[in-house]
Amino acid sequence: MNKLFLLLLLTVAQAFPQTQDETQIKAIYDAALTQGKAYDWLNHLSNQIGGRLSGSVQAEQAIDYTKAQLDSLGLDRVWLQPVMVPKWVRGNPEFAYIESAPGITNNVPICALGGSVATPIGGIKANVVEVSSIEELKYLGKDKLSGKIVFFNRPMDPKFISTFDAYSGCVDQRYSGAMEAAKYNAAAIIVRSMNLRLDDFPHTGSMSYGDTPVTRRIPAAAISTNAAELLSTTLKLNPEIKFYFKQNCQQLPDVESFNVIGEIKGSTYPNEYMTVGGHLDSWDLGDGSHDDGAGCVQSMEVLRLLKITGYVPKRTIRVVLFMNEENGLRGGNKYAEEALAKNENHVFALESDSGGFSPRGFSLDCSDANFKRIQEWKTLFEPYLVHLFTKGYSGADIGPLKNPDIVLAGLVPDSQRYFDHHHAENDTFEHVNKRELQLGAATMAGLVYLIDNYGVAPTKKIKG
User: Is 430 an active-site residue?
Assistant: First the structure.
């Protein structure tokens, strides 16, 4: 390489120096990939504590552990915010089989839906009516549904590139199926798991009885996708088959739990608050690594990355680990309620609750002016293969903070594998890739830095 060419390279480099924003964001990514703590924190949450069902001993252990880790970061303040949460317990493992003829049975994997009542002590055995939608119940009526087990078998639509759109397209049968089937005197419901893959893992999740009287509530369980296919095929061959299942879950009185909160005080605008968080509770079948241990440790890492890269926030930045997102949203509602009562001015909130996969961008719920401003930062993230900046849903726990001025954001990771694990026994630590998790934390920290450094665009006031 001759001296003239070297001189030309040096001249070009000097003509296009790295901006302050590029330098800070690179420092964040470098620190996350070489000095990251998120993976170690998740290892402890997942393998030393495990599934953190709201109101459980494991949830309380997770509160103690994450508070201790935040205390160790040298934040300006760390505290626990009390919140009353529901306590639903699964009890002994569920059991189910398809009976094609007396004495001829095939065992199938099921799990109770969160919030469901138990079956009678001897279980339930009844004929099955397969439907693909809640609307079909009206067409069939009590004559065909009374005393039967309703089998909701609408699969997630594989044509959606965003698997969250596919999930939204069929989750109503899980959430409202029992409430609606009870109106027609059904004995129970079985719901196809919310999963694009064919496997043997039943996926739990929240469900609601609405205002159905306690005495008329019917048991609700999810069945694995492989077993749903088997049940559907068997029904086509013989509509008179019976399905048996037994579950032992129960709803106990509410108990006290906590949101875990850590804070770095703003140096210039301490009364403008920015929040980053995930939900600390999980379902009990796996260890909740993707949903949402990943989001919690990424949020904790955001504050640590800002500190170790030497960035001094202008605004007060909080990490909030919300309790009870899965079956009540009590933590998110409590945080917003107290923020309103204290007249706290929240200008930004970011949530990670879509798994610890490779980050792709952000979904933003905000004004057009703020969306345009954030889109202008897209080029800062493109070197890290983060390029998706869209308007849309942000997150359940930060949703209660919504007002016309706030910017709400959700981290958008690659979603193709998420529902293979969501709410299932295989949502475990070994399915989280360390590098992907760290990249997600750095991506979140990058956006937090930019919002803090430049602020949000004020909402235009219309003069009367």
Answer: no
- Give the mean pLDDT of the chain: 95
Mean pLDDT computed over 221-236: 98
3-state secondary structure of 23: helix
**Between vectors from CA 351 to CA 346 and to CA 357, what angle results, nearest 5°?**
160
pLDDT grade for 3, boundaries at 50, 70 and 90:
low
Tokens describing residue 206 = 């929240």
- The segment(s) of the chain belonging to CATH 3.40.630.10 are 20-88+253-454
Whether residue 292 is preceded by a cis peptide bond, meaning omega within 30 degrees of 0, is: yes
Domain 20-88+253-454: give its CATH code. Answer: 3.40.630.10
Query: Of residues 180, 263, 325, 326, which has the active-site annotation?
Result: 325
- Residue span(s) of the chain under CATH 3.50.30.30 come to 93-248
What are the tens digits of pLDDT across the range 307-341?
Answer: 999 999 999 999 999 999 999 999 999 999 999 99
The per-residue DSSP string of 247-306 comes to ---EEEEEEEEEEEEEEE--SSEEEEEEEEEEE----SSS--IIIIIHHHHHHHHHHHHH
Four-way CATH pick for 93-248: 3.40.50.150, 3.50.30.30, 3.40.630.30, 3.30.110.10: 3.50.30.30
Task: Name the one residue in this structure whose structure tokens are 């103690």.
Answer: 64
Tell me which amino acid residue 218 is. Answer: I
